[in-house]
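cron nightly-structures :: item 1 of 1
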Amino acid sequence: MLSLKKDKKEEEDKDGGNPYSNLEKTSVLQEARLFNETPVNPRKCTAVLAKILYLLNQGEVLGTTEATECFFAITKLFQARDTVLRRLVYLGIKELSGIAEDVIIVTSSLTKDMTGKEDCYRAAAIRALCTITDPVMLQAIERYMKQAIVDRNAAISSAALVSSLHLSRTGGGSEVVKRWVNEVQESLSSDSVMVQYHALGLLYHIRKTDRLAITKLLAKLTKMSLKSPYAVILL
């Protein structure tokens, strides 16, 4: 008995106590069938989804069919109201969006979370939604993005600003994001250090091809007392 305990302890020490060190893709994807059960078991689903995210972040490659099946199974978890599980769902959507097919099926669920009253969901929902959004879909959520940019909650505003920056770098997204310049300028007056920094970064990206606009921006901001040291460095 003592020998078995010693061997187990040596094995744990060797793996650094990592419970995910011996995961196999096939067995984890089989466990993901748990997502289809009703009612959802948040504790078990959280554990399985954490395994999937671990494998993906370790460089495990999923085929298109595997990724699509896993993605659709994850979408079933929106019916659960567990905060930790929901955050992992957003991460799963982001990780699989580049591999799986028909990912736009979650657009309505993400938009609902993005515009809902639960602030703990909104920022992460914005990031996930913008990951799967193409230039055509972007116009459908434009109003919500504008509202999020000037939101009083700093986490939501920052998420919208950074997501807008990523969207502006995609084909066709740049022209849509340019229409949000008034909201971006408004958020530049935020009391939040990070919101001010992210707003300045996005504003520069929007106007960087217009030298006159950049000159005016510099002249205006040098007279302002920027609260964000990050924004001052960027300036």
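cron nightly-structures :: done
The longest helix spans residues 42-57.
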